[in-house]
Specification:
207 residues, mainly alpha, Methane Monooxygenase Hydroxylase, Chain G, domain 1
Length: 207
């Protein structure tokens, strides 16, 4: 039987606001990778979104210290907001690498990894949105399963990308650049799985 949370709703608001920032960040990054002539402008905009997300994270942690009774375990709140922030940090890191490395042409593998990351982020946002009402705990667990599946997909694409990269005719410098970029994509997808693990913990502890 589902146990209802105490009515401190602000944490759920923060979680959803953080989701919105991550979604905005991946949208900008996807647009950037589809048209690399916009890299400078898009990287700047992603950084602005990342700053807004940092503010949300700071406010969440401050609220956590000020709240006597929290709707879910304090450790879950702290872990969830920081792992969500990590996703956007890595999106910004990837955009900055693409810009600083002066990448002018994307690759099919890069676009595939970004698509997988975007789909994982959409699932993260759906899972986080469901936290305020655990009557739908089964749907959250199904979302977590989907995120795990997307992480496996990301691993597969990443391995193929590295194999193709090291067996290509790319200049060694370009290989180093793309290896770094691919690894940042994979790290971001892994952070989505970290969020899924936290969501699973919240659901199972409060079911």
């Amino acid at each position: 039987m589902v146990r209802f949370f105490p009515r401190e709703e602000k944490f759920f608001v923060y979680f959803n606001e953080a989701s919105e920032k991550i979604l905005a960040g991946i949208k900008l990054f996807k647009e950037m990778m589809q048209d690399l002539s916009t890299a400078a402008d898009k990287t700047k905009k992603i950084k602005e979104v990342e700053h807004e997300a940092d503010r949300i994270t700071h406010e969440t942690i401050s609220k956590l210290h000020q709240t006597f009774i929290t709707p879910i375990d304090r450790e879950f709140i702290h872990s969830l907001i920081t792992r969500m922030d990590d996703i956007l940090d890595l999106i910004y890191a990837a955009s900055e690498r693409v810009f600083l490395y002066k990448i002018t042409t994307s690759t099919a593998h890069a676009l595939s990894l970004i698509d997988t990351l975007e789909r994982a982020i959409i699932e993260v946002a759906k899972g986080v949105e469901g936290l305020s009402n655990l009557k739908n705990s089964k749907s959250i667990l199904n979302i977590c399963i989907e995120i795990h599946s997307l992480e496996n997909e990301g691993d597969r694409v990443f391995r193929i990308a590295l194999s193709d990269l090291f067996n290509s005719n790319f200049d060694p410098t370009e290989i180093i650049k793309w290896k770094d970029i691919y690894e940042t994509f994979e790290d971001a997808i892994d952070k989505c799985e970290d969020v899924a693990n936290i969501l699973e913990g919240i659901v199972l502890e409060n079911a």
